[in-house]
Sequence to fold (144 residues):
Amino acid sequence: MPFSHLSTYSLVWVMAAVVLCTAQVQVVTQDEREQLYTPASLKCSLQNAQEALIVTWQKKKAVSPENMVTFSENHGVVIQPAYKDKINITQLGLQNSTITFWNITLEDEGCYMCLFNTFGFGKISGTACLTVYDHIYFLSQYSP
Fold:
């Protein structure tokens, strides 16, 4: 009887270890704040040993995310028509990906998801937000 309890406890510990190991998969991103009408880059890194099959960048919208660009070894970079002259993937990789906006406008402000489609973990995503600011110069003249 004690042997069967030992097997059960061992099985529980092994299952817990597997759950903890799979929970370690994460995507690291960083929010950016950039000046209006300048280039801006958002980065995403998959922090595990699994390599993704495809990386997709989406802009978060009120109703549903909008696909912007994807990268895979089979198809290369595929940019959606609405973003053709606006962005590109400037770091081509299946674990590290960077998109660059060539000339940001106020419409570019918002949050963006990078999705890594992996074999074994499925879709793993992270979110990076872009804040756009403009320098406002005040000229004042003092008259006594």
